[in-house]
Amino acid sequence: MPHRPRADHRLMPDLSFETAARAEGARHVAGVDEAGRGPLAGPVTAAAVILPQGIEAPAALNDSKALSPRRRAALAEWITAHCDWSVAHASVAEIDALNILRASHLAMCRALEGLSQPPCIALIDGNLLPRDLACPGRAIVKGDARSLSIAAASILAKQARDQIMVDLAQQHPGYGWDRNAGYPSKAHKQALLDLGVTPHHRRSFAPIHNILCKEGFVSD
What we know:
By secondary structure, this protein is an alpha/beta fold. The chain is built from eight helices and five strands. A five-stranded mixed β-sheet has the order 3-2-1-4-5, sandwiched between helices. The longest helix has 24 residues, at about 150-170. The chain is globular, with a radius of gyration of 19 Å. The N and C termini lie far apart (about 65 Å).
């Protein structure tokens, strides 16, 4: 009987998009991804990574969401040692002023600006390109699971943002940010009711806005 792939088989990201871009003349191809669009607290963080040519990436390099914390940390060390990389953020104030999508795109543009080699093209995770992208770009849906350079960017973005939330958790104990990274876990939502809203909470997000409305700090 012919071999059938297992139903739980998962594709790994590869260099197809990077190779295609280089075939069209691009020397430096940057993968870009963000972390932190969904949390109620903390900045949104983006990373840009240009993988080196001639050096094989680790076989385990994958979307950060598919990795254990230990594996993600080890891969982050390899990426920062071998790649041109940059990490940047958009603040809570910028998220509230712009909306989370535009703030994510702002962080992405900042990350690209931080690369030592100006990219010829940016491979952006998602279905929209940032308005202010300074180089040609290609939006790739689920890019972190399809492109190795985007997967590498996803790892650095998550590592950097998680560390920020660990540090903030020490300044604001009780919300569990070292465990939930600011996402709306049950414990985080209960802490909001018990301890209140901090300066690091996103006031434009409905759960925070609603709490402040009830407390009379903002009006509808």
